[in-house]
Amino acid sequence: MYGLIGQIKASAGNRDQFAAILAGMGSMPGCRSYVVATDPNDSDSLWVTEVWESKQAHADSLTLPEVQRAIAEGRPLIAGFGQRIETEPIG
To answer: What does the alpha-carbon distance between residue 81 and residue 84 come to, in Å, rounded to a whole number?
Structure first.
């Protein structure tokens, strides 16, 4: 399995709108878990935790039409990126 944990900083006042875009992507082939969470210490930050069957499944997801739409819609709301950690989930 392949995992990612990443912090995304939305532009001021746009965190909830951006979170709705990310949370609304629905199921994706090979995705075992996709969690979007707010950061209680930073009103503009989101944490996205993902678990995929493989690194390739994650890469393949980036070509899905619904993911491409979410990227296009969400990109203007992004102020920057924080930490990004790749993991190897075991359970």
So the answer is: 8
